[in-house]
Specification:
Length: about 210
């Protein structure tokens, strides 16, 4: 089994998402064998698509110049990795109610017509990542983003990532959140972190 791990925290130490994701892989290793490809998009963000990228991307593959192919090289490599993965583990901190800019740059590189989704003449689109499983591990500084919580309507992280992977054809999407990691009491922080670890431990045995 091939797994693609994507980390998107900009922290180089004490990253909660990275710690939980390390923990999950450690647990998963007790049950299955897998090979791992690791993208550190938080520490090494892919380039933000620019005008050259859009022109190259909107040119049919057979008509692209060498220069255009060069412009799309990083994106193509990231997509190849994604398509090659049976499963994807995405570690996403919440930044300003949504995802880190580096993760958005990654997404802008991998969502491409003809590669990760198809577009028919009538405008119908369908995702090409069907059959893959996606696990998304998040950390938030405060709490109350869960259903019926006071900040539920501010959650543009889970809603966005869920919609995005569904658009790409994924039906098996799991989220494990840990909240109150910056601004809760020490007790609450530890309790929430522990709950996320328990959830990940259970998931590893069945995922
Ligand atoms: C730029 C930035 C924006 C943030 N915005 C939010 C936010 O909108 N809501 C929230 O609950 N926490 C927010 N936080 C806190 C992070 O979600 C929290 O520190 C989390 O632990 C980050 O994951 P990490 O530990 O893996 O880096 C923000 C942190 C940063 C650095």
């Amino acid at each position: 089994m091939n797994i693609l791990r994507i980390d998107s925290s900009v922290r180089t130490e004490n990253s909660k998402t990275r710690e939980l994701t390390d923990f999950f892989f450690n647990e998963l290793g007790k049950y299955v064998r897998f090979s791992l490809v690791h993208q550190e998009v938080g520490l090494r963000p892919p380039p933000i698509p620019n005008d050259d990228f859009v022109k190259a991307n909107y040119t049919l593959p057979a008509q692209r110049t060498d220069r255009m192919n060069g412009v799309l090289e990083t994106s193509d490599k990231l997509i190849d990795e994604l398509l090659n993965a049976d499963r994807i583990v995405l570690a996403s901190p919440m930044y300003n109610f949504s995802i880190p800019a580096s993760l958005k740059a990654y997404i802008d590189n991998i969502v491409r017509v003809g590669r990760t989704f198809s577009l028919e003449e009538n405008g119908n689109m369908s995702g090409l990542l069907g059959g893959k499983k996606v696990l998304i591990i998040t950390a938030r500084g405060t709490m109350s983003y869960r259903k019926d919580g006071a900040l539920a309507s501010f959650d543009f992280q889970e809603n966005y990532l869920k919609a995005l992977f569904e658009f790409l054809g994924v039906t098996d999407i799991r989220f494990v959140h840990t909240e109150a990691q910056d601004f809760g009491t020490e007790e609450l922080k530890h309790k929430n972190f522990g709950l996320a670890r328990e959830e990940l431990k259970d998931l590893a045995s069945v995922w």
